[in-house]
């Protein structure tokens, strides 16, 4: 492979903002695996956000990229899996499998798509120093004939349209909007774009904790919600605390510690059969290797309010943000019913939106 921009390349990143800024280029924030794609003739490589190779896990995409991309180019985009009219991140996670036979099976049963949203090189020209606006024009011209499963991400300069996308696209599994300054060059690994994500709050049962890797202070709090059958399901964690607060929490929660997990709702957390029927803190697996996922059971008596962006199935998609304790709430009232459901929106409508130069 001999391209003007060579792997590995760390993709350009975004910093969070509370609202969509004016005067930029706007795109949906895709919920998949960020990937930089390199094509030089028959050679195709896909690198992850951290530079790790993704190529072997998506053989069907390799063939599609050979078919649809210009002969020599470097693209930034997202690998996604589509199911039932929306993005399916859980199915995408399953695609990272060590067995080649399983990889081939999943490529046939849950094929992936690639959504391109930036162009880093074309033929013999590196475009890293080219402004966003010009890169977008080159991207849409170079990929104007692409077809499923390769797409060009819709983009616009209309901030009002971007605000509508922010509300509508969540129903298709996207999790916000990305804003790019029009004159911005491509700056690998730097947080120079803006991301605006949905934020909601939920009251959750505090049911356990994990210790911090540095020692006996709180690393993360384990959260639960009751389902319609009255079972406490593990839905996620909150983990962003200062070291001083981690120490304070360990002392504050000491009276809730249980001597044994036997009387806890997640007593069977190490059982594969139990894990198949309920969501509990997981035991080590091929995803986590030898990582210690042991946890400290707490009596499920305390309620906390956390902020989250969106749900993935029956759990929080990302780590939540602790907001406050809720002594006025009873744990039994912390159910899935409180969670706001976004209005459904067909992913096909997103992918069919204009992919040409932004308005």
TrEMBL record:
Where is the ATP-dependent DNA ligase family profile domain positioned along the sequence? 114-247
Q: Which domain of life is it from?
A: Bacteria
According to its UniProt record, this protein's enzyme class is ligase
User: What are the alphabetically sorted keywords of the record?
Assistant: Ligase
Entry keyword annotation includes tRNA-binding? no
Which GO molecular function annotation, any one, does this entry have? DNA ligase (ATP) activity
Which InterPro entries would you find in this protein's record?
Adenylation_LigC-like, ATP-dep_DNA_ligase, DNA_ligase_ATP-dep_C, DNA_ligase_ATP-dep_cent, DNA_ligase_ATP-dep_CS, NA-bd_OB-fold, OBF_LigC-like
| Keyword Ligase attached | yes
Q: Which EC numbers does the record give?
A: 6.5.1.1
Which reaction does this chain catalyze? ATP + (deoxyribonucleotide)n-3'-hydroxyl + 5'-phospho-(deoxyribonucleotide)m = (deoxyribonucleotide)n+m + AMP + diphosphate
Q: Which Pfam families match?
A: DNA_ligase_A_C, DNA_ligase_A_M
PANTHER family of this UniProt entry?
DNA LIGASE 1, DNA LIGASE 1/3 FAMILY MEMBER
**What family name appears in the similarity comment?**
Belongs to the ATP-dependent DNA ligase family.
Protein's UniProt name = DNA ligase (ATP)
The species is: Streptomyces gossypii
